[in-house]
Structure prediction request, 124 residues.
Amino acid sequence: MVSTLQAAVTTALVVVGSFFLFVGTVGLLRLPDVYNRMHATSKATTLGAASMFLAATVYFTPAGQSLTAIVGIVFLFITAPTGAHMISRSAQRMGVEFALGATWPGMPDSRPDEPADGEEQAEA
Prediction:
């Protein structure tokens, strides 16, 4: 039996999760380049999915069947930044340029196809 408070918290978490998932989806569709899209999807959808997992934890109570949801939250917070970083580095190495003339941080005149971590110096 689900109490009123438990139902209210679960509903609030589902609404918050839905909002963040919606924001991530809009960012994926509207932002101009792969770097911005990756940022929107990795940040907003991670929070949205974590809120949904947390809603499942509250609904099924921590002593019940919610261990899967807690493991899902931990897995999500470990893998989402790693995946986003790998996508960003792959795009950089493939020469994908930023939209609107932006450059890599700390390198005002660098181009995306130039290695940002000093690989040219190591090869020379």
